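Pasting as-is:
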Amino acid sequence: MMKQQIPETNMANAATWNGVAYIGEDIALADRLGEIPVPRDARRMNFIVLALCTNGSLKYTLDTREITVTPGELLIVSEHHVVNNYEASPDIEGLAILMSVDFFGEVINNVSDLSAIFLYARSFPVMKLNDVDAATFRRYFYAIKNRIADNHNHFRRVLVRTLLLAMFYDLSNVIYQFQQIGIQPKKRAEDIFTRFIKLVENNCRTERRVAWYASQLGITPKYLSEIVKKVSQRTPNSWIDNYVVLELRVMMKSTTKSIKQIAEEMNFPNQSFLGKYFKEHVGMSPSEYRRGKG
């Protein structure tokens, strides 16, 4: 995730390097936004970014949209987006949190509770924070950064996850307030996409067929695929798999249920089928993931 900034040889032990606080390839926090090297060519994101601009401005292209971030605005970019044409003003300042998708899976306790922030960010990747919310974000940032730097604390990783979870809920509440007053009108395509994601959240344990979701929405599978691809640059199957894998990660890390029990709850034909599915999407077996190799 941060290979351009952090030397591989130090990553196993060090908690900070050149002003960046990090835990391996899982999470990194930097309070000198202008000093983070960013590729100038198009790159598909494979991690999550939250960045608060405090001075100056930055511009970039997110998929096909031109985005500008100014002081007081929070940028949220999730995985699979294509970022290109990054340009920051000479006086750019801000705070940035970079987090792997795997670590995000460790942080959350319930997939549906936290998806609002990333659903909202897919349509509105830049969110204007008021002074109180911006100050709240800064407090979380430095609290997390200080916990990461304390690599002698046996519970460091747990504390970081707990603080991140609380921060996500606070940000989700900000988004909820925006949605309640109707600050951002939805287009039909975005409305269908949002309804599709909500259905996936609530039903991915038992339903993984695109046709089923299309039926619930009263549209054809082909039309659903076209809408989802247009809005998110991902297929419906990709979103379904994403939520299934997140659910599996959460269940394996936060419960003592056997793999067989999880396979039954997630409506897999058997434990072996779940194992193959998990390894295909995560790169390791469920037992390896539970032993902490993920």
